[in-house]
Amino acid sequence: MLGIETLSSEQIAFILDQSKPFQEFQRHPLKKLATLRGKTVAVAFFEPSTRTRISFTTAASRLGADTMALQAESSSLKKGESLIDTVRTLEAMRPDGIVIRHSSSGAPEFVAERLEIPVLNAGDGTHEHPTQALLDALTIRDRKGKLEGLNVTILGDILHSRVARSNINLLSKMGARVTLCGPAMWLPRDLAFLAPNLRLTHRIEEALEGAEVVMVLRVQTERIHEPSLAPDEYIAGYQLTPARLQLARPGALVLHPGPIVRGLEIDSAVADGPQSGVLEQVTNGLAVRMALLYHLIGGASADAPHPAKDRTNASD
Length: 316
Prior knowledge:
Strand order of the largest sheet: 7-6-5-8-9
Largest sheet: 5 strands, parallel
Distance between the termini: 33 Å
Number of helices: 13
Helix content: 25-40%
CATH architecture of the largest domain: 3-Layer(aba) Sandwich
Structural class: alpha/beta
Number of strands: 9
Number of domains: 2
Strand content: 5-15%
CATH superfamily of the largest domain: Aspartate/ornithine carbamoyltransferase
Shape: globular
């Protein structure tokens, strides 16, 4: 699982469907399966992360797998070890799969070409973050009942966002209409070629008109201080506020991949309001990642009995 770009709409729909029973499973008091008992998942994060790392390790644990963790700040990378040497060291410990996050675009593919075990991309540079797009899609489908035909606005730093790129690929494949909005320096015209039928605008009012889903991207504070854009200018031009949200369709769903910089990219009243799906995204992240670990590391065939569905039925 290296990216959304190479997946078909049928494959995306399959993953979302397979995630549903795991989604229901999160509501049960006993959240433990033996599906991956005896398996080990290596979780190698070469850049800082909290949410995604914890989500993957929790997903593995709830499937019964053991995990071995590597974090860049405490690894041999600090001593100059190369990526491939670090990963081969992990492979020598005989994990059954590896989850990798790296600051270089293409790093998971580089690793996958050299290892014989499944590799899951947990975010690579400005390239892709496939599991984030899948959990976003699951959240949208739960709230709106579909993906096809929806008007989705993605707001913020499109240029540097792997979340945006994976969502653009997924939503376009599933028939949604996508509008990209942000400051000119973060929304170059060539982004229009990422997928068919993308609409680009620098005006937030235009972007929000008719939107049924509004996806607010995290703005990295080091970029907001670039000479051409001060924080107060970004807030004035692009912060999602309650007043601006009213320009969207009634009941428009608001998403954010986190961590949220409150008062910069989004107003707290919106982030915590009834139209926010932020906490649902976190829960759905576990479901999506459990489904992927089950099929990729567990080696389950497409028609295999679903362990969470069986557990749910047994509990009922």
